[in-house]
Design goal:
alpha/beta; seven-stranded parallel beta sheet; 49 helices
């Protein structure tokens, strides 16, 4: 079926010879359009482009693989339509080497092809993540020891002032963070040098010239605007009927103060602002009493005023607590510590690079920088592209970048270097959505996208932007809800892009009529989390409360909800597999949600599993490995002893420790076994357990010196039986997979430069320390038919009929901005000024600006994460989260009811701590909030343009009591049923009719059970065995392997011990005849030479080659049949090793299978065309005596007839002649 493209999509597909930025909204089909553009260039009739002349880069290997598969499939379809098209045939060959890859994959390609330009060893390998963690730890340890040994006073002061806690771990993490940030820049050393320049100031004048200083006035302006808005809202409350009109005068006085401060802000008068804020004096509120003033409005006005005053006081304390000159002096105090940190980072960079060179390894960051070195050289401020860059620029007709919003500076640089700069061509095609840039933690730079978004024209031009507005995923109701919320909370000031008409989502998907209009409305579940109520109702955590609310909602929907079936295009009942629960983080949430859903009878599956290292079976095995390395570790040893590996009970371990109170636990175990304590049965049992455990442990510790770790794990699992035990437990398949993964990780470790059990234990500990949690193994097919629980990041690019955007009440992670030392990719390094001799710590203005910038970026990212979550829904969106003091929160938001501006004040949005702080202010003006407002005695504003909105919401308040009440009723019903069943009298017949029906059903015997014995498909060799099982043993039939299949690879040590079988000999002869070049068969020597070539090409094994007699082959070639086949080969009319499948009657195998048919498969050795007729040939190597030709013919007659029938059907003509050529007899035998 032809695809109907929108006008914008057609532009994306067809426009050429320009740089194109495609801003593709969620669900707009950007991948489909990107693939179609590539195909249109390949299939262009006038100017076709080879697939290998396009560089296509995407974000993940999975996306690259999917794209390559789509393109390959489309090319196959095109080739089917035009099988003679040589251009398409070439594309099918080139697709396998085409650069459809990730940025890392492309960098790897550059390194493989141009390693000589940078002097890199071509044998280097990409290091595994755990290996790099260990290597970094080793380098940092050496680095800090070296610095300590120098006795550098500046370094020691730096450690004393900036090392959090009692160790250097915090400083090491700072060095690593600074290293990672530096390496995300094209020239990291230059970036580090720029960081120190921010501290090379001589006074206040230099301070005002710094890049970060511009952030100050922007922040101050936002804060003043927010304060002014609060005072204005307060005045509005005073002017309402029943409002505190006596407070209006004080609020107007506050407004005058903000006007004065705004004027100073416009002049950018730092000292003037500092002076004004330090001498702030607010007017007192009138103490007069008036009976016509409503109390709650008085409180509302007071609260608004206090909030506004708090903003002004905070400005004074945070930014203007000192003069500009004093601020400059404070910053200068930080110069030495920052220099030390940068020195540490630079030395770490050098040493880490050197260690990697020694071990001949590289990491993904190296790949990007090596690729950069290959493509460009830099001298001063001059960049000179290399010859490699010139070649690639000429080679690639177009460079296409998917998920462009997640690029960083190095990737941007690389993309430009391989684009068409040589011929002054604009040929970069970028597609992405800045609203879905959610990889800031990977140092993505969405501002690169935004820079082009603002500068590229939407008209015809060499740098053109195309916006894909239409969403082909979701219902109008879902899109309306998303648009309503994000128009109010996302803007250029926070989120990176204005959510205007160009950024909004427009429905493009068509849904048939018949859906319940109430079901598709977006629901918002406000789950109250009063802590006292939670404890009263026996609910342990907020997560459990929310999970319970979601479970009840799922059960409610399951009763009557319907969704559109993708396959049939019709509505069907909702299934668990249609539902997903999206969470901001998996840790601490997925387990709770899974347990609660399971308790409610709802199957669930977590696609974002963490907790690999906390899985019981993994912990047990790691503990065993720890004590193998060093048994003098009480906690791991106790864990292993208490586990099924040793099988000691808690009482037995108590008995052991009571007897040997002093010393290590291992000493106690050795003493118990050494003294052979068996005074009573209990002690004897413990002795048996401990002696077995100790014996195996001693054996394993001896083996550890020479045995690879993965083999050691396999040995432990086998000897202890723990692998089988784990597999027999509930979720046994998952546990077995987790243990298999541990073995795989041990094998990966052995490929690294580290060796031995000690380093493996350390390797695993580092993975745990740095939170490299692989997650439990995702089993194939797991989760089908279950509610999926996954992180929002994991859901990117996916879609689901019903989406729960959960965890809206979870606090954002602000650890980035609360650290003692802050690092920003553009503004540099900000820190506190610490003067230990004066015992003073002062936060610098520079650090405050960095904190503000990082906070803004973090909140912008949270907005984009929320956008991704809400746009996954196709038919139904449900937003849930716990919330405390709901009434107080709603009253605090009531001031927005009068606001008619679309975008909420940036000051409010910058104070968000949870997703509710974005969503509730956006919903407060909507009509759906009216019932809740009325409940709290607040009047909604129906004249507000946002009252109606273009979306439908259903907002519900849920309490713990509501949930528990339902739960109690359900449990009571279950208990009654259980009691009825437990007290059931099986001897009494309550209903004869039902009893008879049950007996009839349970005694049913399936009448067609014999059909299970009939194979769907059998080989020709199997037919032969069944037909001739009473014959004497024949060499070709020794094994169960069908004649047409190759033998499996047999290890050499087995080959030496066993004689070469007849079947193997037959395989060898068949392989030679399959590969024989008839043009080189004039002598036995030429045949012998061909056999040697097959051996060198690994087509024959040495033993096979030895058992093939060249004389047998030569004799065949001299026979009349051989001569005929040689002539056919010269005319290219000889066909060898042709597979076939035909249908046969099943009773030929077994008379009991009458009326059924089976498929027979096989491979014809050869056939050839002679004067337009078909001649069939089959080779046999059975050892036969002269005169036994008839025996051989009868043995294989049915097989030859099957071959003939198959060939006749395939060719559409009868087989004229059929021959067996017997190498044992050295002659041909015609089969009639």
């Amino acid at each position: 079926m032809a695809v109907s493209w929108t006008e914008e999509q057609k532009q994306v597909i067809s426009l050429r010879d320009r740089n194109i930025l495609v801003s593709a909204a969620a669900g707009s089909g950007k991948t489909a359009v990107l693939v179609q553009r590539i195909l249109s260039k390949i299939l262009d009739k006038k100017n076709p482009v080879d697939i290998d002349r396009m560089l296509i880069m995407t974000f993940t290997r999975a996306a690259a693989g999917e794209m390559k598969e789509r393109i390959s499939r489309a090319l196959e379809e095109a080739l089917y339509e035009e099988p003679e098209n040589e251009h398409l045939q070439r594309q099918m060959t080139l697709i396998h080497t085409a650069q459809i890859t990730t940025i890392d994959g492309f960098c790897s390609y550059l390194i493989r092809n141009y390693f000589h330009l940078i002097g890199l060893d071509p044998g280097c390998r990409t290091a595994e993540e755990g290996e790099l963690k260990l290597l970094k730890e080793d380098v940092l340890k050496e680095l800090f020891e070296d610095f300590y040994s120098r006795n550098d006073e500046d370094f020691l002061n730096f450690v004393e002032c900036y090392a959090p806690g009692k160790t250097d771990e915090g400083l090491k993490e700072l060095v690593l963070k600074l290293y990672d940030t530096a390496m995300s820049n094209p020239y990291p050393l230059e970036w580090l040098s720029d960081c120190i320049r921010a501290y090379e100031i001589e006074g206040a004048k230099d301070l005002e010239k710094q890049d970060w200083f511009a952030v100050l006035w922007e922040s101050v302006q936002q804060e003043l605007t927010q304060a002014e808005s609060l005072f204005t809202q307060g005045i509005s409350v005073c002017q309402e009927p029943g409002g505190p009109y006596l407070y209006e005068e004080a609020l107007r006085s506050d407004m005058l103060l903000t006007d004065e401060l705004n004027a100073l802000c416009e002049k950018q008068d730092f000292d003037g602002m500092a002076s004004a804020l330090s001498s702030l004096k607010f007017a007192r509120l009138s103490a007069k009493k008036a009976e016509d003033m409503e109390e709650y409005k008085k409180e509302q006005a007071k609260k608004l005023r206090e909030e506004g005053k708090g903003i002004l006081k905070d400005l004074s304390e945070r930014y203007f607590s000192e003069s500009l000159k004093e601020a400059a002096e404070t910053i200068l105090c930080c110069r030495k510590p920052v220099e030390i940190l940068i020195r540490l980072t630079e030395e770490f960079m050098d040493r880490f690079g050197e260690k990697k060179r020694e071990k001949n390894i590289i990491d993904f960051t190296d790949m990007e920088h090596f690729a950069l070195q290959i493509l460009v050289t830099k001298e001063g401020d001059t960049f000179t592209p290399s010859q490699a860059a010139r070649e690639l620029s000429e080679k690639y007709d177009e460079v296409l970048v998917d998920e462009y919003q997640d690029s960083n500076l190095v990737q941007e640089f690389l993309t430009n270097l391989v684009s068409g700069w040589v011929n002054q061509r604009k040929n970069i095609f970028m597609v992405g959505d800045v609203k879905q840039s959610i990889y800031r933690f990977r140092l993505a730079r969405p501002e690169l996208f935004m820079e082009k978004y603002k500068t590229y024209t939407t008209e015809e031009g060499k740098e053109q932007r195309i916006d894909l507005h239409k969403n082909f995923r979701s219902r109008r109701e879902v899109l309306g809800s998303v648009n309503y919320i994000f128009r109010q909370i996302m803007g250029e000031d926070l989120g990176g892009v204005a959510y205007d008409e160009a950024a909004a989502l427009y429905p493009g998907a068509v849904f048939p009529e018949g859906q319940d209009p109430e079901f598709v409305k977006t629901e918002v579940l406000l789950i109250e989390k009063d802590s006292e109520e939670l404890s009263e109702e026996g609910i342990e955590s907020e997560q459990e409360l929310e999970a319970l609310a979601i479970a009840h909602k799922i059960q409610e929907m399951k009763e009557n909800a319907r969704v559109l079936d993708k396959e049939t295009g019709e509505y069907r009942p909702l299934e668990y597999g249609d539902i997903v629960i999206l969470l901001r983080t998996a840790t601490g949430w997925t387990e709770t949600f899974g347990e609660v859903l399971s308790s409610q009878g709802i199957p669930s599956y977590s696609a974002s599993k963490t907790g690999y290292f906390s899985a019981t079976e993994v912990i047990t095995m790691l503990d065993y490995l720890r004590i193998c390395d060093n048994p003098l570790q009480d906690i791991p040893l106790a864990g292993v002893l208490h586990s099924p590996v040793a099988g000691c009970t808690s009482q037995e371990l108590g008995l052991l420790r009571a007897e040997y109170k002093e010393g290590m636990l291992f000493d106690a175990v050795c003493a118990w076994v050494g003294e052979e304590r068996m005074e009573n049965e209990e002690e004897a049992v413990l002795f048996e357990k401990l002696s077995c455990f100790l014996s195996l442990l001693t054996n394993v510790r001896d083996m550890a010196e020479y045995t690879p770790v993965h083999q050691l794990i396999v040995y432990i699992l086998e000897k202890t039986g723990y692998g089988n035990y784990a597999a027999a437990l509930p979720d046994g398949e998952q546990r077995r997979a987790n243990l298999s993964m541990l073995i795989e990780k041990a094998m990966d470790y052995e490929k690294t430069s580290y060796r031995g059990l000690f380093n493996f234990v350390r390797y695993i500990e580092k993975l745990q320390k740095f939170q490299v949690d692989y997650g439990e193994v995702n089993l194939s097919g797991a989760g089908e038919g279950s509610v999926q629980i996954m992180t929002i990041h994991k859901s990117k690019g996916l879609e689901f009929p019903v989406v729960f955007a959960a965890g809206m009440g979870k606090q954002f992670n602000f650890s980035d901005i609360n650290a003692g030392l802050l690092i920003h990719h553009e503004l540099g390094i900000g820190t506190d000024a610490i003067l230990p001799e004066k015992r003073i710590t002062s936060t610098t203005l520079y650090k405050q600006m960095l904190r503000r910038a990082i906070l803004k970026e973090s909140l912008g990212e949270e907005l984009r994460v929320l956008y991704v979550a809400l746009t996954r829904a196709k038919e139904k969106l449900i937003i849930t989260g716990t919330i405390g003091k709901l009434e107080e929160r709603i009253r605090g938001l009531s001031g927005f009811l009068k606001q008619e501006e679309e975008l909420l004040p940036v000051g409010n949005r910058m104070k968000a701590k949870t997703y509710w702080d974005y969503i509730l202010p956006a919903l407060i003006r909507h009509r759906a909030m009216e019932p809740l407002l009325e409940e709290y005695g607040i009047f909604s504003n129906r004249r507000n343009p946002f009252y109606e909105g273009d979306s439908d919401f259903v907002i519900r308040k849920i309490t713990a009591k509501d949930l528990v009440k339902e739960e109690v009723e359900l449990q009571a019903e279950t208990e009654i049923r259980r009691e009825v069943l437990e007290n059931w009298d099986a001897s009494v017949t309550y209903n004869e009719e039902i009893k008879d029906e049950l007996e009839k059903r349970f005694s049913f015997v399936y009448p067609y059970g014999f059909l299970r014995e009939i194979p769907v498909k059998v080989s020709v060799s199997e037919l032969k065995k069944r037909a001739h099982h009473d014959f004497y043993e024949k060499e070709e039939n020794i094994t169960e392997i069908p004649e047409e299949e190759e033998l499996p690879v047999v290890p050499e040590f087995i080959e030496k011990q066993e004689a070469y079988t007849g079947a193997s000999r037959g395989t060898a002869y068949h392989r030679v005849m399959e590969c024989l070049d008839y043009s080189r068969t004039s002598s036995i020597e030429e045949i012998r030479e061909q056999i040697k070539e097959l051996l060198m090409q690994k087509k024959l094994k040495e033993k096979e080659a030895e058992c093939v007699r060249p004389g047998d082959i030569f004799a065949f070639l001299k026979s009349p049949l051989g001569q005929r086949m040689k002539k056919a080969s010269e005319k290219r009319l000889l066909f060898r090793e042709q597979p076939f499948v035909i249908s046969r009657k099943a009773e030929e195998l077994n008379p009991d299978w009458e009326g059924e048919r089976i498929l027979v498969q096989g491979i014809m050795d050869a056939y050839f065309m002679e004067e337009g007729e078909l001649i069939l040939v089959d080779y046999k190597t059975d050892r036969m005596r002269k005169g036994e030709e008839q025996v051989l013919t009868e043995r294989y007659r049915n097989q030859i007839l099957d071959y003939g029938e198959a060939l006749s059907r395939a060719a559409g003509k009868p087989v004229k002649e059929a021959y067996i050529y017997s190498f044992g007899l050295g002659k041909e035998i015609e089969v009639e």
